[in-house]
Specification:
The structure holds 2 protein chains of 2 kinds. Chain A is mostly helical. Chain A has helices at 2-12, 29-54, 65-68, 76-107, 113-125, 128-139, 141-144, 150-157, 165-190, 192-201, 206-217, 219-235, 238-243, 248-256, 260-293. Chain A contains 15 helices and no strands. In chain A, helix 5 (113-125) packs across helix 9 (165-190) and helix 12 (219-235) runs antiparallel to helix 15. The relative contact order of chain A is 0.11. Chain B has 13 helices and 2 strands, in the order ααββααααααααααα. Chain B has one domain (57-281): MetI-like fold (Orthogonal Bundle). The longest helix of chain B is centred in the first third of the chain and has 34 residues, at 53-86. By secondary structure, chain B is an all-alpha fold. In chain B, 76% of the residues lie in helices and 2% in strands. Classes of the chains: A mainly alpha, B mainly alpha.
Chain lengths: 294, 282
């Protein structure tokens, strides 16, 4: 086959653009084996979960009742709304904290770069359960040591079950690695230094530079960071479970005993939501790519 | 100097919500509460307790599970990454696998556990299918065991490996391969002397990341096995929810501190490996 291919290319007078190497073409079988096996492994649970939720156990047909039943399920609206609010607050706080930091470090304080990078990577390796045990210990100082002081009141206020701000504070920490990396990539890709210097030379003040130059340049990075944080908060279980708050994931676990199909249906939907969120990110990335080449 | 003030909120935030809780763990793991007088004293009691009996088994169980799943996921993820990178007409396939990896690496926790329960749990679709057609069910396999957990963990670890290792694979320059070919090297020799040594540090680094990820996993295990399988994360949750035993709180802190120490050791090794990688992949 190889000789034939070379002969054909030679006959046409066109040299092949990559040298044809014998001995490298034979190993295609393992590739299909790997793709096939892993493909099955990844598809079967999704397909099976879907079938689990649409089959009708009573008369053997197909039913969508478990999906249509989700909005009205006991506690769903409350838990899901709470998770959405927590996610929105986390996104806002994380961006408010990180945009100035990333921009400042890139433009004016490159010496702090390593420190910021290391600190933002820490939540990726410190197990969340260890972190939450530490947070719980700090929170228990309020009744133990500070009782009757304004500090204790603040501690109790951030543990309000309706809107637990402590989860927002903790989720910002968990989101740091993703937010930092997304923003840092945006700052690097845009040559922010030249742009801000140009703006400064033209007489813009620093706040004006931030609003009119930095934010528009970082638009896709900001959205990227926001979507990743949203996905993270909607799926976070460890903190909510250990601190005893009900969010979307802890709600799924609570109802799973009495409504197994419902819990699987919600799981399938949450996979779909993650998928949509990431599709949006990659669509944004592609648009940025075409904008830059245009 | 005024500009440095702009980074104060960040450092303050990290100090309060990340460093303080870890520091508190490191201190309070060495405190003990007297069961009778409720007086607090310094003690290494909790630390001694977690190196024995059920807690020792939990640490060993967690280490074993994370080590096995990390290595398996690294091998499978690497194979998958190589397979899609070297496919000739693979643009579409490549994008599909990468998108799917992005989604599935983020699809952990509670929903993942329920997807597997619906598939190969006691009432699972595949379990029922095998029972009806072959009459054997899943054989001796149980989802609610260490092996079951490993199978579930691979579901988010393999995609994580693909995402982590693709940049390193792309950094392998085709020219190196061509140079090796021109000098008459065989495929084996190329991987043994060129590709392997360049790729080894990032592969090892990625494996460490998978290890840390599997070691810290809590939600999936909690939903699947409760506390019937010895894992540190489940033992911590148990210790914290126990209102009966005085000092269980301190035990939880000691167990958590132990996890931080384990991960810290792994990451120190990772940092060392990473330094060696920079030279080649810069």
């Amino acid at each position: 086959m190889t000789a034939l291919a070379e002969g054909v290319a030679g006959a046409g007078g066109v040299a092949p653009d990559t040298p044809v190497r014998s001995g490298r073409r034979g190993g295609g079988a393992w590739r299909f084996a790997v793709l096939g096996l892993l493909g099955l492994y990844f598809l079967i649970p999704i397909a099976a979960s879907f079938w689990f939720t649409v089959r009708d156990r009573r008369d053997g047909g197909v039913t969508a009742e478990f999906y249509t039943g989700i909005p009205g399920a006991d506690g769903f609206a409350e838990a899901f709304t709470r998770s959405l609010i927590l996610a929105a607050l986390t996104v806002l706080l994380a961006l408010a904290l990180m945009i100035p930091t990333v921009v400042l470090v890139d433009l004016r304080l490159p010496r702090l770069r390593t420190a910021v990078e290391l600190l933002t990577l820490m939540p990726l390796v410190v197990p969340p359960i260890a972190l939450v045990v530490g947070v719980r210990s700090v929170l228990s100082w309020a009744p133990d040591y500070f009782l009757g002081t304004p500090l204790a009141d603040a501690f109790f206020a951030i543990q309000e079950p309706d809107l637990p701000w402590i989860l927002v504070f903790a989720y910002v920490v968990l989101a740091l690695p993703f937010v930092y990396r997304a923003l840092d990539a945006g700052v690097h890709g845009a040559d922010l230094r030249t742009l801000t210097e140009a703006a400064r030379n033209l007489g813009a003040s620093w706040p004006r530079v931030l609003v009119s130059v930095v934010l528009p340049v970082l638009r896709t990075s900001v959205l990227n960071a926001a979507f990743l944080t949203l996905a993270l908060v909607l799926g976070e279980f460890t903190f909510a479970n250990i601190l005893g708050f009900e969010t979307f994931p802890t709600w799924i676990l609570r109802i799973s005993g009495s409504a197994p199909q419902l819990s699987v249906a919600v799981s399938v939907l949450s996979l779909l939501v993650t998928w949509l969120l990431l599709l949006m990110i990659s669509a944004l990335d592609r648009r940025r790519g075409t904008e830059e080449t245009a | 100097m005024l500009t440095a003030l702009g980074t104060v909120p960040f450092f303050l935030y990290v100090a309060v919500f990340l460093l303080l809780p870890i520091a508190v763990l490191a201190v309070e793991a060495f405190r003990a509460t007297d069961p009778v007088t409720y007086e607090e004293t310094w003690s290494t009691g909790s630390i001694t307790t977690i190196t024995e009996g059920v807690y020792r088994r939990a640490y060993l169980g967690s280490l074993q599970l994370s080590l096995i799943t990390a290595v398996l996921a690294a091998v499978l993820g690497l194979a998958l990454a190589v397979a899609i990178l070297r496919a000739r007409r693979g643009q579409l396939l490549r994008r599909m696998v990468l998108t799917a990896s992005g989604v599935l690496a983020n699809f952990g926790g509670i929903p993942l556990a329920f997807a597997f329960i619906a598939t190969i749990g006691n009432q699972g679709v595949v379990t029922a299918l095998l029972q009806d057609t072959l009459g054997i069910g899943l054989g001796g396999f149980s989802l609610y065991s260490m092996t079951g957990l490993a199978l579930v963990y691979l579901y988010f670890l393999v995609p994580l490996m693909v995402l982590t290792i693709i940049p390193a694979l792309e950094a392998l320059r085709p020219q190196w391969r061509e140079a090796a070919d021109n000098l008459g090297a065989t495929g084996w020799q190329y991987w043994r002397y060129v590709g392997g040594p360049v790729l080894a540090p990032p592969v090892l680094g990625a494996t460490m990341l998978l290890f840390a990820s599997a070691f810290a996993a809590y939600a999936t295990a909690k939903a699947l096995v409760g506390s019937s399988v010895p894992l540190v994360t489940l033992q911590i949750a148990d210790a914290l929810s126990s209102n009966v035993v005085v000092g269980a709180e301190n035990l939880g802190k000691a167990l958590a501190l132990g996890m931080v120490v384990v991960v810290g050791l792994v990451m120190a090794f990772y940092a060392w490996v990473q330094r060696r990688t920079q030279r080649w992949l810069a």
